[in-house]
Design goal:
Blueprint (H helix, E strand, L loop, with lengths): L13 H7 L3 H7 L18 H7 L3 H8 L15 H7 L3 H13 L8 H6 L9 H7 L3 H9 L14 H8 L4 H7 L14 H7 L3 H10 L14 H7 L3 H9 L15 H6 L6 H10 L5 H5 L2
Helix pairs in contact: 1-2, 1-3, 3-4, 3-5, 4-6, 5-6, 5-8, 6-9, 8-9, 8-10, 10-12, 12-13, 12-14, 14-15, 15-17
């Protein structure tokens, strides 16, 4: 009798190859009761057939593999679980199958329970939820939050999922993460909140959502004592400067670690710069106060 688990030079079994080729009928045959197939066999990159199917969105094959009770906690050489693979590529239907299997089969054959697998981190410290956020996959984000995804988990760069949503401009994600009790006050290595990141990357939609859902102190500073207005000026985002002044009523006279106001920072751009003009106009009602306090 032929050994169904024999591997080729890439350490792939027949199940890996059949999955990679999208050959459902062969996969079905290999995981049937009559074949002694190791569904958890890992190739040279430590991918199981389930990793491959999840990455490529092969819903019917994932469903068939699940019948063989694979260990869904297994990681590849980048420490991706099958949930990372499905989430990163936006295969939300596959992700739902896998999450349902985790619950139905007692954490999918893995250890530590469903929450431990859902919140498992890869080599960059990213959970499946981090990856879904970064790649803008709304349905995957909703599924993971509902399944107990840790909305306050930080990756190796100390970035939470709310930080990533802010920096990537995914305003749709803010209400979902808020519903899961995402901590607005979480800080990056630079001491920045989600608001600071939204300002730095000029994501006005995110700023609006954050202010709508959270009790935000618009004057909160980062590690350099820069406010949102300072950061908007440093990054020369004129529309964000206007928003912060007109909609958020920010403090025009706040000083950073170098005792500089936003106007003083903007003056380095030279006369005629939009940022300088916006700030100068906003400061006109204050008369000489701005010039005296900005020297």
């Amino acid at each position: 009798k032929a050994d169904a688990n024999i591997k080729d030079r890439t350490k792939s079994t027949a199940l890996h190859l059949a999955t990679s080729g999208g050959h459902f009928s062969i996969v079905s045959q290999l995981v049937s009761d009559g074949v002694d197939m190791d569904v958890n066999a890992q190739d040279a990159s430590r991918n199981t057939a389930s990793h491959i199917a999840a990455k490529n969105g092969l819903k019917s094959i994932v469903s068939e593999l699940i019948t063989a009770s694979p260990d869904l906690s297994l990681k590849n050489d980048q420490d991706y679980t099958v949930l990372h693979c499905a989430s990163a590529n936006g295969h939300h239907q596959v992700l739902k199958l896998l999450l349902d299997a985790l619950v139905a089969n007692g954490a999918g054959g893995g250890t530590g329970g469903t929450a431990a697998i859902v919140n498992s981190k890869n080599k960059s410290g990213d959970t499946a939820l981090h990856m879904a956020i970064v790649n803008g996959h709304k349905d995957a984000v909703s599924l993971l939050v509902a399944a107990g995804g840790d909305v306050n988990a930080s990756n190796a760069n100390n970035m939470s999922v709310l930080h990533l949503a802010a920096s990537h401009g995914h305003d749709w994600a803010v209400p979902i993460l808020h519903s899961g009790s995402a901590d607005y006050n979480a800080r990056t290595k630079e001491g920045q909140t989600a608001l600071h990141l939204a300002v730095i990357y000029a994501k006005e939609g995110v700023i609006v959502q954050l202010r709508r859902l959270y009790d935000i102190n618009i004057e909160q500073t980062d590690a350099t004592q820069s406010t949102a207005l300072h950061l908007a000026v440093i990054n020369r985002h004129s529309t964000i400067i206007e928003y912060l002044i007109n909609e958020a009523n920010c403090n025009l006279f706040a000083q950073n670690k170098l005792n500089k106001t936003a106007y003083v920072l903007a003056k380095d751009f030279g006369r005629g710069d939009p940022c300088v003009n916006i700030l100068a106009k906003a400061l006109m009602p204050h008369g000489k106060m701005i010039y005296e306090s900005s020297k």
